[in-house]
Design a protein that fits this description.
about 325 residues; Extracellular Endonuclease, Chain A; two-stranded antiparallel sheet; 10 helices; globular
Length: about 325
């Protein structure tokens, strides 16, 4: 994951850090990482409360900094791996890596949406910020990329479906607004977005409230979905592909530290593969559970690739069968 970033041909516009600023960034990180008596959640909160770190976090495409952030549980939105080996190179417009403050993503310019979005859900991301509803084009995309706007979805019969949910990022207004960037949207049928998908999102936050932290990655595959105006393959004057299915993979861990090392054969992993149509509401989200192997076959991605191979193979072949109604 990190080596590919090191050899990028272009960098985010805010990555033009002078050596002085780079050293200051590292020093600030060190002073935070080695504070005694702080657990991972406390460090995360202090990290985001530090204005200098917050303003420069998304700029750090340097391999060393990524490794440092990973080591101290500060860059955890890609903890389980980069499934498509996305890189921050505008020539790779079909698999363009973007590191946001509150999530990471692989953007596909040819489809007008992300291949996947990955994030960490824990109470350290939660607060009282109000839902901003401030949908906006992503200005951090390269100049030669098409910038999807909210009007591209207008009167199409499809919702602007959040990949990383707004309610997962309400620690402050800045993080919440980031979830409304159009790179975090995918065309979803209204019944999928407003009923089935939101029920799964609520369940994830219920797991969080019960003392867990979750590593989540989600996206879509296939071409053509059925919205409120019928079957459609493209919207936005052909700039945005409508997926036939939306998938999500959720790794559930009790709160703790050294998360990657705590993923074992007994770790609960939930994978769902849900059709993008209006009939989807006829069954609850948990009826669409499947294996990671099935989603890998449909997408071509390699999930959990930072987990030891023998654990990865075990977890990816198992379908979660927990009785949701008993929780």
């Amino acid at each position: 994951m990190h080596n590919s970033i090191l050899h990028t041909k272009t960098k985010p516009k805010s990555d033009k850090l002078s050596m002085k600023k780079l050293l200051l960034f590292i020093f600030t990180l060190l002073s935070l990482a080695f504070q005694n008596g702080l657990n991972k959640t406390d460090k995360k909160k202090l990290f985001f409360e530090n204005e200098y770190l917050r303003n420069n976090y998304s700029a750090t495409s340097n391999s060393f900094l990524f490794e440092f952030l990973d080591q101290y549980d500060l860059n955890d939105n890609l903890l389980t791996g980069n499934p498509s080996k996305a890189v921050n190179d505008f020539h790779q417009s079909f698999n363009f890596l973007m590191i946001k403050q509150s999530y990471a993503l692989s953007y596909n310019n040819s489809k007008g949406c992300s291949n996947w979005v990955s994030w960490h859900l824990t109470t350290s991301w939660k607060g009282n910020a109000k839902r901003c509803n401030c949908f906006a084009s992503d200005k951090e995309l390269p100049n030669n990329f098409y910038k999807v706007s909210t009007k591209d979805y207008t009167k199409t019969g499809f919702d602007r479906g959040h990949l990383c949910p707004s309610e997962d990022r309400d620690l402050n207004d800045e993080f919440n607004a980031e979830t409304f960037l159009m790179t975090n949207m995918i065309p979803q049928s209204p019944n999928l977005n407003r009923i089935t998908w939101v029920a799964l999102e609520n369940y994830c936050r219920k797991l969080m409230d019960n003392g867990n932290e979750l590593y989540i990655i989600t996206g879509g595959y296939g071409t053509g979905g059925t919205g409120s105006k019928g079957y459609t393959e493209k919207i936005g004057n052909g700039h945005i592909y409508v997926p036939s299915h939306c998938w999500k993979i959720i790794v559930v861990l009790p709160l703790g530290n050294n998360d990657l090392q705590r993923i074992t054969n007994n770790t609960r992993v939930i994978a769902v593969d849900i059709p993008n149509n209006q009939e989807v509401k006829s069954m609850p989200w948990y009826s669409y559970r499947t294996t990671i192997n099935e989603i890998e076959e449909k997408t071509g991605y390699d999930f959990l690739n930072k987990v030891p191979d023998y654990i990865q193979r075990h977890l990816e072949g198992f379908t979660d069968n927990k009785n949701i109604n008993d929780e």
